[in-house]
Amino acid sequence: MVSSSKIKSVDFYRKIPRDLTEASLSGAGLSILAAFFMIFLFGMELNSYLTVTPTTSVIVDKSPDEDFLRIDFNISFPALSCEFASVDMNDVLGTNRLNVTKTVRKYPIDRNFKSTGTEFLAGPVSKVIKHDDFVEGVYAEGAISLNAHNFDKFSHLHPILVVNFFAPWCSWSNKLRPSWEKAAKIMRERYDPEMDGRILLAKVDCTEENELCRRNHIQGYPSIRIFRKGSDVRDEHGHHEHEAYYGDRDTDSLVNTMEALATSIALESQKLALEDKSEKVSDKKPAPVTGGCRVEGFVRVKKVPGNLVVSARSGAHSFDASQMNMSHIITNLSFGKKITPKVMTDLNRVLPYIGRSHNKLYNQAFITHPGDSNITIEHYLQIVKTEVMTRAYKIVEDYEYTAHSSLVNSPAVPAAKFHLELSPLQVLIEEKPKSFSHFLTNLCAIIGGVFTVAGILDSILHNTLRLIKKVELGKNF
What are the Cα distances from residue 187, in Å, to 150, 340, 343, 403? Predict the structure, then answer.
């Protein structure tokens, strides 16, 4: 058996007999300071152990193929009418969605970006517009030509004034012209302007009467507007109230529509007899009261390079590119799911790491000068996904992006284009707490280190004091 004396020989902590030790005031003071220092360092280490420090890493985006990206937007166009404002989407995989309406809302605004009414629900119909068959030959003109000088006169004179705002260079205007003239002639014969005058069909050449067309917010050709007597009274925003016609453009359809309009203001006895007929007219919708539009809503797109385009679009109208102005202010353009305020409150620890570029273009204006024409405004966006994983394993997704914008001369109809480029990499932010073993290791290092350093300082101080006393004794002798 191993004797106890051999076991004692491996003792690292040999004891000094108490009667050989000596207490001193300097040692006591240093011990108190060391104890306070240990407590201070212990508190710092405990705080570090309880505090979670986010770590950032860059990894390959592992989003599933069927995952879609949500784009929220709120963009104001002071010179684009809600009548033709269209939101289109396309990508490199061949997806091409034109005039998205299900998740998009449009509100009329004035030139100062102030809202002037409720949501604009009307717009050009998507069906194929019917026209008369083309017949060569000369046809009589039945519609009266209006200009800026006589427009108000005729709108006050007749209970109903239906105006065709056209452009001679427009192919759709040229298709409409024969049937419009025929319909106007028929209505003049049925409702003589001198004897009856309930309704009058007229036309305005927008290439000659540019200001008159602009005053009535005409942006696409041809545009058929229905002015009722009294609608010339301006509202609080200074705009007229009238209707737009989006129906078929053949002679029969036009005549039937005009007949229904005329009978709607007939004598009271006639109204009762023709009530059912007038109710069948469904191609009349409110015309835009202002020339601007705020487009807001969201779309879902595949996570591949693509484009979000806002422009004037119609299947039966032409646009003068030189007169289009796509100036706009971006109130919101963000990607991914919206982070609710509650979630943001729960993530106060990582707020400095996310959200700084979530809405990079917030409240930025892109305005073209009045003399500029055919200007397309393009935004090139590079989007990076950011994932935050908290200690509770709650994943928060955020999409940040950089933006570079430019003004480009375009031969086509100007537009506001957002080119989307998604990064194949993503940023991963994780909250990794320190392990308890690491905390214990640091705690032992603090205690041992402070105790050792204090012992060294005490030894130096004690020997220095002894040396000083010896020197003093030597001087006395």
Answer: 20, 60, 65, 56
Residue 383 bridge partners (DSSP):
401, 422
Which residue in 34, 85, 30 sits closest to 326, CA to CA?
85
Among residues 170, 206, 213, 293, the one annotated as catalytic is 170
> Which one, of 359, 365, 371, 366, lies nearest residue 335 by Cα?
359
Contact yes or no for 157/150 (Cβ under 8 A) = no
Report the 10 Å Cβ neighbour count for 421.
Answer: 13
d(CA 457, CA 451): 10
> Which residues contact residue 75 at a Cβ distance below 8 angstroms, ignoring those fewer than 6 apart?
294, 295, 296, 310, 328, 329, 330, 331, 333, 416
Residue pLDDT tens, the chain, 477 long:
566 766 766 656 666 666 556 666 777 777 888 888 888 888 888 888 887 777 788 888 888 777 889 999 999 999 998 889 999 999 999 889 988 888 999 999 988 888 887 888 755 545 678 888 766 555 667 889 999 999 988 888 888 999 999 999 999 999 999 999 999 999 988 888 788 878 999 999 999 999 999 888 899 999 999 998 755 444 443 445 678 898 889 999 999 999 888 887 754 334 434 444 444 445 667 777 778 999 999 999 999 999 999 999 888 899 988 888 899 999 999 898 776 666 666 555 555 556 567 778 888 999 987 667 788 999 999 999 888 777 666 677 788 899 999 998 877 889 999 999 999 998 887 777 777 888 888 888 888 888 888 888 878 877 787 788 778 777 554
pTM, full prediction: 0.74
170 has catalytic annotation: yes
* Alpha-carbon distances of 218 from 118, 248, 250, rounded to whole Å: 20, 19, 21
- How far is it, in rounded angstroms, from Cα 143 to Cα 154? 13
